[in-house]
C-alpha cells in the first residue's frame, strides 16, 4: 500500500473564510493608523479619498466574484489572472501578491510591536521594542502554523472587539463636539485635487486584504459561495466603517495640538483630552488585538501563495508539503514568515517613524495589489466565465480596469520624485520575479 501525501484540508465554513477577509483588512488599523496618516496630507479631504478608494474596491470585488466558479486555489486571485492571461502571468501575479502581503506583514508587525510596547508601559511593565515585536511575530507564526480554523476565528474575535472600541470613541466625538457648524469639515468644495490624491495611497492600503479569502478556496467547504460572500461582506463592512471614520475622526483629531496629532497614538490622546476614563487603555488593547489578527491574515495568505508557487516549481518542492497533523502548509509558512520577521527586526533597530513605514511598506503593498487587481480585470475581459453573461463580464471587468488604472496612475504620479527608491526597488523585484517565471513556467501550460 502506498502512502498518500497529506493535502490542504477542506474544513473551513463561511464564517472562517469571512474572518480571513475581514481580519486581514484590519478595520481598526484604519482608525488608529491610516486615517490619522491620511489626515496629515489630505486634511478634511480624507473622506473623499476613502470614497474614491471604496468605488474602486467595490468594482474590484465584483470583478473577483465573476471568477467564483473556478476551482479554488491557494494562489488566490493570482489564479484568476492565470485563467485568462496564461500560467506565466498568473505566476507573476502570485509573485506580486507575495511582495504585497510581505510588505503588509512587516508593517503590521512593526505597528504591533509599537502598540504592545505602549500597552505594557501603560500597565507598568516596560519592555524593549524588539521584544514586543518578536512576541507578535513569533506568536502569529505559531498560531498560523497549527490550525487555520483557530487562526481565522481568532482574527474575527480580535477584529470585532477592537472595532467596537473605536466605534464607541466615534460616537463620543459626535456627542461631545460635532454639530452643524462642523459640516464644513466634509464639504468637498473646500478640498483640492492634490489633497484627495495625497490620501489615496493610505485609503487603498486600508482595504487591502479582502481578496485573501480566495487564498482559502481549496480549504473552504463551499468555496463557490463562501469566497464571493466573504469578499462582498468585507468590502461593504470596511467601506461603511471607513467612510464614517474618515468623515468624523479627522474632526476630532483636529481638536488636538499639532504635536499630539503627529504622535504614534493620536486617538488615545484625543480620548484623554475629552476626559473619557480608561479610553486610552482600551484603544491600545483594540489596536494590539487588531494588528495581531491582521498579521495572522497576511501570514495565512503568504503561506498559501508560497505553497502554490512551490506546486508550480517556482519555489522548492518541499514547500508544497502539508503538515501531517495540522493540515497547514507549515513549511511554506516558515520559509516566507521567518525571513520577513527577521527583516522586520532589523527595521525595528532603525527606529523609523510612522510616515516612513507607510511610505516604504505601504507603498510597496499598494503597487503590488493594484498591479494584480488590474491583471484580474484584464483577465475577466479575455476569458468566458461560467455563470456570467458576456455583457456583465465586459461591463464589470472594463469598469474595474479603468478605475484601477486611474488609481494606479494617480498614486504613481504622486510618488515619483518623492519615493523613487521604493518605486525602483519594487520594479527590480518584479522584473527578477518575472524572469524566474518566464524561465521555469512553460508558455502554454
Element-level helix/strand string: HHHHHHHHHHHHHHHHH
Q: How far apart are the first and last residues' alpha carbons, in Å?
A: 32 Å
Structural class: mainly alpha
Provide the residue-averaged pLDDT: 85
The Rg value, from CA coordinates, equals 21 Å
How many helices does DSSP assign?
A: 17
Please, what is the oligomeric state? Answer: single chain
Q: Tell how many strands the DSSP assignment holds.
A: 0
Shape: globular
Strand content: under 5%
Unreliable residue stretches: 179-186
Biggest sheet features: none
The percent range for helix content is: over 70%
Short description, anyone?
The chain is built from 17 helices and no strands. The protein is mainly α and 445 residues long.
What report would you give on this structure?
It contains 17 helices and no strands. The protein has 445 residues and is mainly α. The chain starts with 13 loop residues before the first helix and ends in a 5-residue tail after the last helix. The model is unreliable at 179-186 (pLDDT under 50).
